[in-house]
Design brief:
Length: 439
Amino acid sequence: MSIIYALATPPAQSAICVFRVSGKGSLDALPKLFSSHLVEPRFFYKTEMLYKERFVDSVAVVFFKGPKSFTGEDGFEVYAHGGLAVMSKIVEVFDAVGFEEAEPGEFSKRAFLNNKISLSQAEAVSDLISASSKEEASRVSLVLSGDFESRIFDFSGRLDALRVLVEGEIDFTDEDEVFVQNLTELGSDMSRLSAEFSSFAGACSSKKNSLNRPQVLIAGPPNSGKSSLFNALLSRDRSIVSSVAGTTRDLIDSELVLQNIVLTLGDSAGVRDTDDLIEGAGINISFDEIKKSDLVILVFDEETESSVSFFQELLGEQKHLLVYNKIDVSDKRPSGFDLFVSAKEMDGLSDLRKILDERLSANKNEKNLTYLVRERHISIFSEVSSKLSHISSSIEANESLDVVAENLKVCRDLLAEVVGIKTSDELLGEIFSSFCIGK
């Protein structure tokens, strides 16, 4: 395999940046790139990065000898200053010495191919990075730690034991060898295995359903301060703020990080009657987004509070918060509102953040579920559960053991796909293509 490199931190100005390098022969480049003599693996060296005696940056370096590394290969990491110019210089140096830029997920793929992690653990690496709450991160960590894989191997071992009995009974029935003493006992073992596997499968939820960030939309009448509140929550200007009604014409959204959860916050066009075709299109988008949101923040002020009932009727059973804005210019505190804020003066925003965190974290907390896995896992588990149930019925109906043996084999092969023991190249390509570059 070639020597690959990647920037493992975001390509943006920051205190430091980290580059990862992996591949056979990568350590041969250390004397060419660094001024210090690097001797001990896993030791943090502060040194200078040079190329052809030209100074690149003051850096820290740590190197690893395979197989005692993440990928199982020789490799090293460079910790440099996080300037964009520095990053560009390091990329130029790595290209010049013949390293190749890594594809998305290539480091994790090599770790899997070198038997450092299972396929389910490799997928969990990507899912952990994508987790949007502490609860999700904890559930993904159970997969990454090997607990999930251990359960799969346990079920696989029990399937193998049953296959030995069933196939032995089939193959040696003419030689007076008895492998299955009692079909009733075999049926009981299968029923028990089927029930336990169904319970395990029920403790898993899919990434598709659980890792989607909650959608929160700021809505309400025009000029009530929706965009000001949006910008204030994000602590930066994303929406245009103007006294002219109808200024926001398209949906604008951004990531909002709270204490326990990450959500997508959207700012919508004010809802009102209008003859402006472009503004009208923005209002239609607002209606669509309201329906798709997990929570709607309805914003009003002294001039628009009379339209509260209209918006509540529009939302129906949809979860929402009633926020009264512009308390810096009005002493009124009408009844029925959940919160009183001033987006302009940043007053009441910490309370709003706390309410959002509590409500959305409670919605995401699925205590009956243990593992956060992929859709392909859920699909495989569904098929295995169906097959195990069918096997139990076959034994109870005294059907041919050949059918039982074949279905046991299918179940065993399906579980092997979960951890990557039996996986097509096409599936591997699809899985790792969704990873971050540098992971």
